[in-house]
Structure to design on (304 residues):
């Protein structure tokens, strides 16, 4: 396959990756080639972890952070020093050729950092992962509404919504790169604990699954150095080839909405009639200072 001035050798296009739908590796490659202009602004400049399925979704998978030696020189990498003194060369995917190359490497689902290569310790995203205990998606939609009310309406933080393509929803706040991961995660955890106390029968911050019962888990653990999240418009390794899809908030009202609603089969029909709701997400980036002050006032008011 020729992309720009590069010739990319594509192998095993006919290998079955999604057996139930008969989607092949070639279908995955074609998807990422076609979605490139939409997905790239969300993943460029971010260290990327590859989740690879050489034999499709029913085969073994493996997570790969370090770019293999055989990756071509034109694939950008970022060397990151780990706590133990070792280094990892992460892939940086900034162009269609790199995206297609990764798909050819059976990377079905790229996961990305919440910070960029030039300022790794300072995230530009704060993320809340709404993880349900069961298949009742109405609970997830309700929790998203509660969180939006707190973040956006009470604290003045712009909030962006996305189906994960798996079970739940992500709510993301775009940030100015001023606070460290520890500071951002601490704030996200305080917000989650506040909501847990407000709705103790419905929400939990318990890390251990056996402590959650049937409550929805407010997960903020991704707000940490070197942690990753599914990229917007990435394919998930599940039957139907669902796609993590940014939404407008009013779409939460759709009665039949669920986390796997959009797939590689219907996502382009959606994008043909509706632009990417996260297209200008970076323009909404904010400092957390005002929100921190408002949150302290909110908690003090509740104690009066």
């Amino acid at each position: 396959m020729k992309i720009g001035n590069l010739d990319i050798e594509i192998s095993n296009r006919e290998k079955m990756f999604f057996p139930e739908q008969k989607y092949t590796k070639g279908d995955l490659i074609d998807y990422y080639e076609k979605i490139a202009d939409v997905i790239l602004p969300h993943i460029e400049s971010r260290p990327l972890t590859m989740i690879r399925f050489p034999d499709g979704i029913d085969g073994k998978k493996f997570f790969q952070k370090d770019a293999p030696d055989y990756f071509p020189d034109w694939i950008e990498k970022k060397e990151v020093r780990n706590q133990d003194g070792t280094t990892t060369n992460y892939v940086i995917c900034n162009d269609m050729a790199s995206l297609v190359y990764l798909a050819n490497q059976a990377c079905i689902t790229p996961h990305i950092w919440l910070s960029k290569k030039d300022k790794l310790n300072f995230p530009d995203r704060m993320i809340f992962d709404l993880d349900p205990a069961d298949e009742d998606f109405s609970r997830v939609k309700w929790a998203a509404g509660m969180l939006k009310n707190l973040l956006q309406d009470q604290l003045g933080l712009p909030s962006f919504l996305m189906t994960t393509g798996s079970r739940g929803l992500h709510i993301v706040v775009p940030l100015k790169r001023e606070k460290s991961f520890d500071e951002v995660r601490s704030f996200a955890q305080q917000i989650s604990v506040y909501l847990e106390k407000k709705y103790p029968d419905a929400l939990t911050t318990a890390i251990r699954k056996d402590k959650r019962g049937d409550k929805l888990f407010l997960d903020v653990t991704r707000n940490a150095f070197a942690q990753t999240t599914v990229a917007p418009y990435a394919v998930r390794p599940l039957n139907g080839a669902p796609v993590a899809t940014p939404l407008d908030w009013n779409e939460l009202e759709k009665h039949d909405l669920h986390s796997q609603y959009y797939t590689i089969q219907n996502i382009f029909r959606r994008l043909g009639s509706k632009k990417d709701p996260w297209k200008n997400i970076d323009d909404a980036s904010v400092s957390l200072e005002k929100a921190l002050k408002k949150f302290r006032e909110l908690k003090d008011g509740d104690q009066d």
About this structure: The chain has a mean pLDDT of 96. The chain is about 30% helix and 20% strand. The two ends are 66 Å apart (CA to CA). The CA atoms of residues 113 and 226 lie 6 Å apart.
